[in-house]
């Protein structure tokens, strides 16, 4: 086994790998991942020293949780950090079509998702996740995408997670979203203290719009888990493709041009665009981990190589200038 991937603290009792295993892909995100391939990917991550694994009921309507739990079943429970999410209950689908691709997962839609951010729904969701994962506790629980349920999250979901934290079923609690405004509101206005926020795509090399949340997290003693560091693929290759996506859609021309300029800068300074994308979020002291989606053992190897790449300070200064030149109308700063 390789040495452990470096770790950073969340709360008083947890430490997570600075690069975490995102399990949406092994829930058949966009395409089928064979069982052996999914298991092999988790095993490769473990052997490479990764000890933080993130999942959610949403990912493959439970498939990701089941696969991750099975792959970790023979690992010492105290040796890894496991996070999942609440807010979507899985219930039998009265009108199955045979595929969940309408929700981006290539898996049967025997079950469907019902949004539920009530205290009872949160407890039920976590209890069902524990069953799929085959564990009796989860280290981190995020309220998942409560964009239209912010006040219910503040008054019901987070207080219920706090109660479960007191019961020892949950370690750290927080919210996970693709925007920064609602998490900032919850971080600063909720009577329950948040330990962590998972912020997807809003604290990246190109999109730094989540800066107010990142700064506030540090001030409130919370930590950030920065997900989606490649912004849906735009930053995932040494040279961005003309067909590259940003934030789940075709990349705007200005962002594609900026990504290409960053790629050229990376080459000039002896590194690569994906390496810079993985390392950028970790430059802020509020960020505990970057979580990337993994579906193949080879992706584990490449991601950790990018994490360990040498990047001179001069590159970061030049990258800041590229970001500063983006049009304000893009809303990325």
Helix and strand arrangement:
Layout: E1 7-10, E2 14-17, E3 19-22, H1 35-47, E4 52-54, H2 63-72, E5 81-86, E6 88-92, E7 111-115, H3 119-133, E8 138-144, H4 150-167, E9 170-177, H5 181-189, E10 196-200, H6 211-219, E11 223-227, E12 245-246, E13 249-250, H7 253-268, H8 273-279, E14 287-293, H9 297-307, H10 313-324
Parallel strand pairs: 3-4, 3-14, 4-5, 5-8, 8-9, 9-10, 10-11, 11-14
Antiparallel strand pairs: 1-2, 6-7, 12-13
Large-scale geometry: globular
Low-confidence stretches: none
The largest sheet has its strands arranged as 3-4-5-8-9-10-11-14
Any idea how many domains? 2
Q: What proportion of the residues is helical, as a percent range?
A: 25-40%
Level-2 CATH architecture of the largest domain: Alpha-Beta Barrel
Which H/E pattern describes the elements?
EEEHEHEEEHEHEHEHEEEHHEHH
The largest pleated sheet is described as:
8 strands, parallel, barrel
CATH superfamily of the largest domain, by name, is NADP-dependent oxidoreductase domain
Range of strand content: 15-25%
SS element count, helices? 10
Number of extended strands: 14
Rounded mean pLDDT score = 97
Cα distance spanning the termini: 40 Å
Look up the CATH topology of the largest domain: TIM Barrel
- Rg over CA atoms, rounded to whole Å, is 19 Å
Structure classification: alpha/beta
Query: Class of the largest domain in CATH?
Result: Alpha Beta
């Amino acid at each position: 086994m390789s040495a452990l991937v470096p770790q950073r603290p969340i709360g008083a009792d947890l430490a997570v790998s600075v690069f975490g295993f995102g399990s949406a892909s092994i829930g058949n995100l966009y395409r089928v991942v064979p069982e052996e391939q999914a298991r092999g990917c988790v095993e490769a991550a473990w052997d490479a020293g990764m000890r933080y694994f993130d999942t959610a009921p949403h990912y493959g309507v439970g498939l990701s949780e089941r696969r991750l739990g099975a792959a970790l079943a023979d690992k010492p429970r105290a040796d890894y950090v496991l996070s999942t999410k609440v807010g979507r209950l899985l219930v039998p689908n009265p009108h199955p079509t045979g595929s969940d691709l309408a929700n981006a997962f290539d898996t049967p839609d025997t079950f469907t998702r019902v949004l539920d951010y009530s205290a009872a729904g949160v407890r039920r969701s976590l209890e069902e996740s524990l069953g799929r994962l085959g564990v009796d506790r989860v280290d981190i629980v995020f309220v998942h995408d409560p964009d239209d349920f912010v006040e219910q999250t503040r008054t019901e979901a987070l207080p219920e997670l706090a109660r479960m934290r007191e019961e020892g079923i949950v370690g750290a609690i927080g919210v996970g979203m693709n925007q920064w405004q609602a998490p900032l509101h919850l971080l600063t206005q909720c009577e329950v203290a948040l330990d962590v926020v998972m912020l997807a795509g809003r604290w990246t090399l190109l999109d730094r719009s989540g800066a107010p949340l990142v700064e506030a997290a540090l001030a409130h003693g919370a930590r950030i888990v920065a997900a989606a560091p490649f912004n849906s693929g735009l930053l995932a290759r040494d040279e961005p493709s003309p067909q590259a996506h940003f934030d789940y859609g075709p990349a705007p021309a200005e962002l594609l041009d900026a990504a290409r300029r960053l790629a050229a800068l990376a080459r000039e300074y002896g590194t690569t665009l994906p390496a810079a994308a993985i390392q950028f979020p970790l430059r802020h002291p509020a960020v505990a981990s970057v979580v990337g989606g993994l579906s193949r053992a080879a992706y584990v190897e490449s991601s950790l190589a990018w994490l360990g790449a040498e990047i001179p300070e001069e590159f970061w200064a030049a990258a800041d200038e590229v970001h500063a030149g983006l049009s304000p109308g893009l809303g990325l700063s």
